[in-house]
Amino acid sequence: MNKKSVISIIVVMALALTGCVGGSNIPSVTSTSAEVSVSDSLVSVDDTKDVSVSEDAAQEVEEIDDGIKHITMADKKKLSSFIKENYNYGFLLSTYDDIKNVNLTEIFYCGDPSFRSDINPYDRYLELTGDEEIYVDVSAISYEKMNEILMSRTGYDRNEFKTWLMDGINDYDNSMHLFAHGDTNYFTYDIVDGYYDEEGKIVLRVVPSANNNYYEGTGYHISERIVTLEKVGSDYHFVSCRDDIETDVIKQWCYNIVLPYVGSCQLMSYSPREGNHDVTFKIVKNNEILSVFGGNYDTLNIINDKTFNAIIDVDITDLNFDGSYDLVVLAEYMEENNEPSYEYKVYQSESSYFYYMKDLSNEVNENVEPITAVAATAFVKGQGLLNDDWKKAYIDEINSYDTEYPGYTLAYIDDDPIPELVGEGDCEATGAKITTYYDGKTNTLPIDRLYFTYIYKTGLIDNCEGIMGYCWDYVFKLQEGEFTLVAKGTYEEDHYSEPDENGLFGYKYTWNDKPVSKEKYYENLHEVFDSSIAVPGYDWEHVLYKEEMLSLLKVEYSKVY
Q1: C-beta neighbour count of 297 within 10 angstroms
Q2: What is the spatial order of strands in the sheet that 306-317 belongs to?
């Protein structure tokens, strides 16, 4: 009997002994097979306590002739127990290439009871903050305990890390960290497979355990991870943790796109795993999964009477001319009688998430033959929606700027479906620009310096800025393509007034060029512009660069692979 036959018999015997009929050992962490059932592959502490396979047999089971040294079943049992320890699960809740970038909040903020001190942290927190009462839990972590955990799991002292705990305060003797917190993020993981890399480090693919709460339908997702460990003596150190974006990916249907507030990112398609009954996509940026949609992550999208089989066609477009990507998918399913059927799925994007449009999808399926995704797109765009001439106008506007505007945003300032184009200058002196499109023409409002706020879909804008002790509120109204100055307020330092105890002068206020008191100034401002419901004109952390905005307006995309 040759070696291959011996190993095959041992595999069958091992599976029979463990009760894992239909289980699977995945050849590598980058496998794209859609045949693997995650639930069949999971090994948890409880699942392995009755395993009766000897370590020699377990070692032989894992001998896969693919040039990779896979972990043994004994390794998997030991490592599964390790990653489920209370001290360790926080190391799997953030992504990092360097352990010094691990999110310490995820490790300690979750409030593992073993971190708590003997003092009454609630009373001590109130004493230090001066609060009368709070309605959330308070935890106390000693720096000694924190160092003990970090040193044992990473080999580094807490002062060597680049992140810190949020929402906390130091105790009086600087030996304790106290923080108030609400719900914790306790999620356990199961090991699917693993191997030893060329440096001898252990690389594991882990998935959230089946008993975790996935918050279905909200876009919230706990990602599968690729975790690297280093064995140090009889223990392990965490080295890195990253999202698993390769396993089960359908490379044919992955695209580089641009999304508002996100910028350049990837739209990745995946074969559904056990329990994910339909088309599944992920939004990925910098190798981190921002959101997951489709499958069982969108309750409107779940199917029960047939099985997803393949994606036939995809069209990325702007269906409702709102300046953002939408997605049309033509998918193939297998009915219960094993006959194929075809269905269009329509998704509209908002920030980093795509929402399944159930009613629109049903309308498309009732009226469009399942031929191509573009056929469905043409049907939707032909339903009396706006044309997209405004996009070409905005592209021409951007290309006409002779001053550098490094950031761009689309904002819904007036109440029509076409957004306004905001260009943010490279410095305060350059200022900003708001361009609107109405009745085939563009009109632009220069913003004095950079800052302004607006009240969503009311047309109201407040250019609230200042320089060298001189400040202003210029309130504009955008209506039918025209910007009209509604009111003008100014205030400046009054150097003839008596300075206060801090040496600061008072201000002189005017409203529509007439002197007013401070109280009257803000009363007048509130009458024409309610700043309490206004939003900033843009967020510097989420603006798009010139080429990104041009790509968004053109709905450009390219293949990832």
Answers
A1: 25
A2: 306-317, 326-335, 340-350, 353-356
Distance, C-alpha 131 to centroid of its chain: 33
Using CA atoms, how far residue 352 sits from 216, 258, 284, 343, in Å, is: 16, 10, 9, 24
pLDDT in tens, 471-481: 999 999 999 99
CA 451 to each of CA 345, 378, 471, 508, 528: distance values in angstroms, whole numbers, following the listed order: 41, 40, 12, 22, 18
Query: Given phi > 0 = left and psi -120 to 50 = alpha, else beta, which region is 384?
Result: left
Hey, what are 400's tokens?
Answer: 């006409």
The one-letter code for the residue type at 359 is D
Task: Give the CA distances from residue 31 to residues 67, 146, 200, 205, 282, in Å, rounded to whole numbers and listed in that order.
Answer: 14, 37, 21, 11, 17
Q: What's the half-sphere exposure (Cβ side, CA atoms, 13 Å) at 554? A: 12
Q: What is the pLDDT of residues 33-69, one digit of tens each?
A: 333 222 232 223 333 333 333 444 444 444 455 678 9
Q: What's the one-letter identity of residue 34?
A: A
Say what the pTM is. 0.68
What whole-number distance in Å separates Cα of residue 404 and Cα of residue 84?
52
Residues 6+ apart with CB under 8 A from 407: 423, 424, 538, 540, 543, 544, 545
3-state secondary structure of 104: helix
Question: Bigger pLDDT: 8 or 376?
Answer: 376
Q: Which of 31-40, 169-178, 200-209, 234-243 shows the lowest mean pLDDT across its residues?
A: 31-40
Residue 427 in 3-state DSSP? coil
